[in-house]
Known about the structure:
CATH topology of the largest domain: Jelly Rolls
CATH superfamily of the largest domain: BT2081, beta-jelly-roll domain
Shape: elongated
Distance between the termini: 33 Å
Oligomer: single chain
Number of domains: 2
Number of strands: 20
Helix content: under 10%
Structural class: mainly beta
Strand content: 35-45%
Order of helices and strands: HEEEEEEEEEEEEHEEEEEEEE
Low-confidence stretches: 1-22, 209-216
Amino acid sequence: xxxxxxxxxxxxxxxxxxxxxxxxxxxxxxxxxxxxxxxxxxxxxxxxxxxxxxxxxxxxxxxxxxxxxxxxxxxxxxxxxxxxxxxxxxxxxxxxxxxxxxxxxxxxxxxxxxxxxxxxxxxxxxxxxxxxxxxxxxxxxxxxxxxxxxxxxxxxxxxxxxxxxxxxxxxxxxxxxxxxxxxxxxxxxxxxxxxxxxxxxxxxxxxxxxxxxxxxxxxxxxxxxxxxxxxxxxxxxxxxxxxxxxxxxxxxxxxxxxxxxxxxxxxxxxxxxxxxxxxxxxxxxxxxxxxxxxxx
Length: 296
């Protein structure tokens, strides 16, 4: 009965971790629909919708320049053209439809704390890129966060947007723009270009998700944790396994050998607040994985 309970908790936590990544529509910008002469990112409105579909220029395009290299094949590219009128001039996209710029656009579950992703930015004429998120409960804005940056980033760079404190949320929206919309209005300052890719909640995507072979049990508590965690696990008798902890950047913070059924207490008081990945490996195979959060 104890093993069944622990395995049930592992399944729940693993589902929660996967679900937190999957909530954002088309988060890796892999899915695009053909509309006339342009491509539209599935699940997102963009400024292409304000342009005749038979035009030759569109500010939002599908790009094969993506990151991380082994996680997907495409990214979104947003380009400003200040000489064009109104929405046609700016590279902008947000989740949902035309009415999603200040309304809930997709459902969320759990309690997202941080929006992560990657970007490249080539600003002109003092443009400032703008990425922001808002959370809602029953249609009421309850929390959010922003990332403004006017500094060039010629290589793919990760970003993190802490979400302000809130009690509960049921939906969200995300906006990405190659200029600071709230400061300068609808017309950008320069012909700036912004790339974005692999958005996620509470976990920076560092690679394609590995195949997990579920032949063991893994349970960590308390979750969220403060200064220490208790790890309970079940592995096949006589088989040596390895337990590892990684931060969101893929850096290994802990490694230890385990065998049979074990209870391990670890001091995590030196770990910063955030989301961590706990992995159990048997031989060269990842046999179980779960996430835990440190909050203080």
